[in-house]
Amino acid sequence: TLTSATIDGKLEMLPRAQFDVSALYYQKSLYENADNKTKFKAKYGYDLVPPDTWKEVTDQAQFFANPPNFYGTQFAGKEEAINGRFYEMVVAEGGEYLDKDGKPVFNSDAGIRALDWFVNLYKAKAVPAGTTNYLWDDLGQGFASGTVAINLDWPGWAGFFNDPKSSKVAGNVGVKVAPKGSSGKRTGWSGFHGFSVTENCPNKEAAASLVWWLTNEDSQKLEAAAGPLPTRTAVWDWVLKQAENDPYKKEVLTAFQEEAKHAFAVPQTPEWIEISNAVYPELQAAILGDKTSKQALDDAAAKATQILQDAGKL
User: Fold this and answer.
1) What is the C-alpha to C-alpha distance for residues 150 and 74, in angstroms, rounded to an integer?
2) Are residues 12 and 120 located together in one domain of the fold?
3) Binning pLDDT at 50, 70 and 90, where does residue 280 land?
4) Beta-bridge partners for 91
5) Which of 154, 170, 221, 229 is deepest in the core (most CB within 10 A)?
6) Predicted TM-score (pTM) of this structure
7) Helix pair 204-215, 217-224: axis angle to 10 deg
């Protein structure tokens, strides 16, 4: 979080207790079912256990899918949401989104493999037909409805998914670290909420005092008690101790604490959202079959390059 908050060598903000990185939620009963285990082993040649690679997610999503009543997985399909997911899949496949000079290079072999993951699952009907219009609330409600087997999602949904008042999968939710791509790296697109002091602030000392108070250990404990992941390592120890007698909460925190080790920020360019808005329609075009993955990524890279050139970055 401190690295991602440091722009051009200057720490721009301090993080509150709101650290976001995604882990894998899944329906435990699907993996405990003896018939599922037998059929899966016969078809794919390995044991049915919660996936640790994106290749295993693909196999299992296709195995569990029974459209239109049940789907193997899902993904956010528009705006920054899909661009961020695509970005972390590119990294997991061993590629880069922007190179060291800030040039878009995601139209690479790694980028094609990453986009093909979305394309192939959509083609196989292992994801809902409307997934290209989904954002975060749609994914949360989808998994909670009990109609999705595996769901990569944020920590803020953990309590919602296990609450019988809001979720049909309550009591049946497993959580584990996000899977690895073919490079051996795990997906880990990450962000956080934080506080800054503006350069033209009339009372910098008072503002800095407020930021310190909002981000200190006591404040993070107060926030973390409601579910958000703390950004102070000392508060992690406290949170884990509070969860000792709650098996589900302990599983959630353990998974996200492990996933935090693999977290990485979005490319540090002010044009990230503008680039996302240009790239995501191209990703959709590939998913829907209007373009090949190569065509879509070449077109997206050209648009992203033009944005950065117009901004004087290239």
Assistant:
1) 8
2) no
3) very high
4) none
5) 229
6) 0.93
7) 50
